[in-house]
Amino acid sequence: MADHPAVEVSDLCVSYGSAPVLAGVALTVPAGTGVCVTGENGVGKSTLLRCVSGLQRPDDGRIRVFGAAPGSSPEFWAAVVTTVEPPTWYPGLTTREHAELICRAHGQDPDDAGVDEALERFGLAGHGDAIPPSLSSGQKQRLTLAMALLRPSSLLILDEPEQRLDPEGRDTVARMLTDYLSTGGSLLMASHDDKFAVASGAAITTMESLAR
Ligand SMILES: Nc1ncnc2c1ncn2[C@@H]1O[C@H](COP(=O)(O)OP(=O)(O)OP(=O)(O)O)[C@@H](O)[C@H]1O
Q1: 3-class DSSP state for residue 123?
Q2: Does the entry feature the keyword Transmembrane helix, yes or no (predicted)?
Q3: Can you identify the CATH homologous superfamily of domain 7-89+138-210?
Q4: Cβ–ligand 1 contact at 16 (below 6 Å)
Q5: Whose CA is nearest to atom 10 of ligand 1?
Q6: Does 45 sit in the ligand 1 pocket, CB within 6 Å?
Q7: ipTM topping 0.85
Q8: Which residue CA neighbors atom 29 of ligand 1 most closely?
Q9: Which residue's CA lies nearest to atom 5 of ligand 1?
């Protein structure tokens, strides 16, 4: 895995109907680094992230994630966390139980994985016994990111992680992404907040610069 870039995209083309959205997009995220894709609304950032996440088949082009095609293999989903799709909450499970579940699903003891610390760090300690649908939109986003960062992974694919977060929440997430990168993780994200992206340790690249 370490021999390959985290993400390698070349000649990626996606159209919706007759409207081309991505035309010959190329992108590399070296393993252990972070890249943030920026650009105006509708330029195709989420489409790119969906394709790299294996959630959308491009019309043309080549995508490799740690040297393999993205998709439905257990190895891919053991290595990759994507927040491109909005989360689905389990009926009747609390915020804490969601965090515990994600740990257990990945073979971690929730205490050892630091569920309490994660809830505290994300400002959710007082909401551990609430069910996620009752949380505010920013608190839901905090829980989504806490769960993404609690489980082991090698690549995070995050679509506008700063969305709905207050300034303190953005700072917390940026610090945690910097830590993630410093421990060898790789990051591909889309964002409208350059300051947040830089604070996260990601190199900024515009969608425009990725197209041929
Ligand atoms: N399922 C779909 N069917 C048809 N058109 C779509 C579909 N998904 C996206 N599009 C169109 O493709 C273009 C790119 O959308 P995309 O969501 O990838 O952009 P984005 O850069 O992530 O935008 P934003 O900054 O608003 O999140 C837009 O014009 C959008 O309307």
Answers
A1: coil
A2: no
A3: P-loop containing nucleotide triphosphate hydrolases (3.40.50.300)
A4: yes
A5: 16
A6: yes
A7: yes
A8: 42
A9: 16
Cα 91 to middle of ligand 1, angstroms = 30
Instruction: Give the pLDDT band (50/70/90) at residue 166.
Output: very high
Give per-residue pLDDT as tens, 14-73: 999 999 999 999 999 999 999 999 999 999 999 999 999 999 999 999 999 999 999 879
Residue among 46, 51, 157 to mutate when testing ligand 1 (max atoms within 8 A of CB): 46
Give the pLDDT band (50/70/90) at residue 91.
Answer: very high
Q: Residue 196 Cα, ligand 1 centroid: separation in angstroms?
A: 22
> If you take atom 11 of ligand 1, which residue's CA is the nearest one?
42
Contacts of 143 (CB under 8 A, 6+ apart): 95, 98, 99, 122, 124, 132, 135
Give the tokens for residue 25. Answer: 């997009």
The Cα–Cα gap between 42 and 46 comes to: 9
Cα distances from 163 to residues 39, 105, 139, 166, in angstroms, run 15, 27, 11, 9
CB 14 less than 6 A from any atom of ligand 1: no
Residue 172 sits at the vertex; the CA angle it makes with 6 and 200, to the nearest 5 degrees, is 35
Does the pLDDT of residue 104 top 70, yes or no?
A: yes
Q: Are 48 and 3 in contact (CB under 8 A)?
A: no
Spatial distance between the Cα atoms of 27 and 210, rounded to a whole number of angstroms: 6
- CA 93 to ligand 1 centroid distance, Å: 32
